[in-house]
C-alpha cells in the first residue's frame, strides 16, 4: 500500500507536531511530576510537606496536635482536639478532591498558618500519585477515602468508632512517593512552635492595598458588604453599618463593587479602625528553647499601591552553637517550603533563598550556629503555588534579630540573665503613689541596677551613660526610652544604687595639680623605689615605632566611649587616639597638626582615621575635619594638603549586618531636626543626599560598645590598610634590645655607687 504524504508537509516532519493538547489545571495533582510543581518541593520532600499541611490544618481547627507513625509503620497520623469536620462523608470526600475549586479563608489576611488553600489538594494528590491510603476519623466515624483520576474522591467505607472529639487523619504513601527519613520533621517543628501568645483579633483594613481589598470583595461572592466589613478589626457591630452607609454601599453584595467603590470602602473602614501594632500579633517567646539565645525585632512593611497595605511583623530568632551552619525558617509558626540556608563565609553569616542573599551577622570563622527563625505577620508575599515566601521585605527585622541572637549565642554566660522585657525601664505609676506602688517601683529599680552590674562584670572598657542605653537595648530597652534611662542611671549614681564610676570619667574634666603623698613607712617606700629602679628599663623608649615606616597614623573618634573601645588596638600599633568632640579647643587641633608636620618632614605619609556617627554630619565629616585643620594652617605653619583623611566604621550594611540601632530622627546636638525645612542646614547638598539615600534615621557610634570585639576588629582593619601587621612585633624586638642596654647601664652604675 502506498503511503501518501499530505500536501504542505515535509517528509521529515513528525505527523503530530501541530497537535495541541488541553487539560484542566487540577490534573497536575495526579502525578508526582505535576505534584512537585504544585507543591513547590522536590519529590523527596513530598511526605514531609503533606504531614506539615495536615498539622497546620489541625492547629487551625484545635488547640493541640499530635503527629506520629501508625503502629504497623506503614503510614502516619495527625490528630487534633478541635470540633471535628462537619458534613456527610461525601462532603468530607469533596474537601479531599483534587478537582474541587480552591476554597480558602486565606484571602482574609491573618497571622495564621498556610497561604493559598492548596493543602488538602496536595494531600489527596500525594495519595493518588503514590497509590497510598487515606482515612478521616471524626465525629465517631472512620471514613476511608480514595482519590480518583477524574478529580473526585470516593468514599470507600464508613465505620462507626468511638471518637467524639477532634479529627484524626491517617495516611500512607505508595512507592511512587520517595521515602523520607525526616517525613515528620516539618510537622514536629510546627507543633513545637505552637506556643506563646497568638493573635486573637480580626483581619485589619490596614492589611490590604486597594487591588487586594477589591479581590477580597470579589471572592466573597453574594455576601453583603456589611457582613464582610463586620469581619474586620475595629469595624464590628454598629460600626459596620456606619461604614457601609458612609461609603454609600448599603444592601450591595461584595462581588458587585467596582474598583472605585472598593477603594472608597477601604478608606472609610480605616477611619474607624486603628492600626494593629506588632505587639498585638503575639510571639512564641524565649521559652521555646530556654537553652538557646533568643532575640526578637518588629516593624511594619508597606505593600502594594495607594492606599498601601501596612503590614506589621514580629521576627523571632533562637540560636545555639553547632558543628555546622543550619537554618530553619518559619512563617507564622510553620516551616517554609522554599529553600533557605545559611552560609558562614569567613566571618560573615549570610542567608540565601526565598528572596534573601544578605549578610545577617558576623562571628569568628570557626563558630557555627543552628538558627531557628520565625516571622509572624498577617501577610507574606508568595512567589509560587508551592507557597514559597519572599522574605526580602522583612530583611531589616530578620537581620536585626539574627545578629542579636548570634551575639548572645557567643556569650553563653549572658543567657541566664536574659530578660528582654516590655518594661525593663522602671516607671512610676501616675497620680499619688501608694505604699505598694512605691515598693514595686523600688524593686524595679533594684532589678535595673542589678542587670547593669552584671553586664559591667563582663565589660573590658569604661562606657558613658549613653552607651549603657545601647548595651541595655539587648535586654528590652527601647530607642524612645534612651533619654529616660540616662536620667535614671544618673539618679542611681547619685543615690548610691549604682557606683559613681559605673560611667566613664571625661578626661577633659580631670582635676590636675592634686597633692600626692608618698608612703610614710620608710621601709615600704624604700622597697617601692628599689622595685621601680629594677624595672625602669621596661618603660625606656629611645626609638619610635614609626622610625622604619613610611607612614604615620592617628585615630580620631566622635565619642569618648569609642576612644576607650579602640584604645587597646591603637596601643598595639602605637597609634594616638583622641576624641575630636572637644576640637573646639584650638590647642588640641594644633598639637595634632604639629605631630603631622614633624612626620611629614621626615618623609612619611600622614593618615588620619575618623570614626563617628552614621548621620549627615558623620558621613560628611572628612570635609569638615580638613577645613578645621586648614583654618589653623597660618598659626601652625603646616597645611593638611597631603594628609589622607579616611572615615571608617559605621555604614548602612555594617549597621544592618550586626543589628545595631537605627534611631528614627535626625536630631542635632542643638535640638534641631535636619529633616525640618526650617533648619539652616536642611537644604545643604550633603543633607539632602543623605535623606534621599537613608531616610530620616541615624545610627550613633556609641552602639559599637554592644559588639566590642567587632568594633575593635573594625579599628584594626582600618589601621592595617596603612600599617603592616608585623610592624608591632618588629618594633618590639628592636625596643627589647634598647631596653636591655639600659638595664645593664643601671646595674653598672648601681654597682659603682656601692
Write down the domain tally.
Answer: 5
Q: Looking at this structure, what is the CATH superfamily of the largest domain?
A: Histidine kinase-like ATPase, C-terminal domain
CATH topology (fold) name of the largest domain: Heat Shock Protein 90
Count of DSSP helices? 23
Helix and strand content put the structural class at alpha+beta
Helix content: 25-40%
CATH class of the largest domain: Alpha Beta
Distance between the termini: 134 Å
Uncertain segments of ≥5 residues (pLDDT<50)?
Answer: 1-13, 414-422
**What is the CA-atom radius of gyration, in angstroms?**
35 Å
The biggest sheet amounts to: 6 strands, antiparallel
Residue share in β-strands: 15-25%
Identify the CATH architecture of the largest domain. 2-Layer Sandwich
Task: Estimate the global geometry from the Cα principal axes.
Answer: elongated
Strands in their spatial order, largest beta sheet: 1-2-6-3-4-5
* Strands, total number: 20
Mean pLDDT: 86
Question: Gist?
Answer:
With 754 residues, the protein is of the alpha+beta class. Helix content is 35%, strand content 16%. The strands form 5 sheets. A 6-stranded antiparallel β-sheet has the order 1-2-6-3-4-5. A 5-stranded mixed β-sheet has the order 9-10-16-11-12, with helices on both faces.
What does this structure look like?
By secondary structure, this protein is of the alpha+beta class. It folds into five domains: 25-194, Histidine kinase-like ATPase, C-terminal domain (Heat Shock Protein 90), CATH 3.30.565.10; 205-275; 279-417, Ribosomal Protein S5, domain 2, CATH 3.30.230.10; 436-505; 550-663 and 698-723, Rossmann fold (3-Layer(aba) Sandwich). Helices cover 35% and strands 16% of the residues. The chain has 23 helices and 20 strands. A six-stranded antiparallel β-sheet has the order 1-2-6-3-4-5. Strand 9 and strand 10 form a beta hairpin.
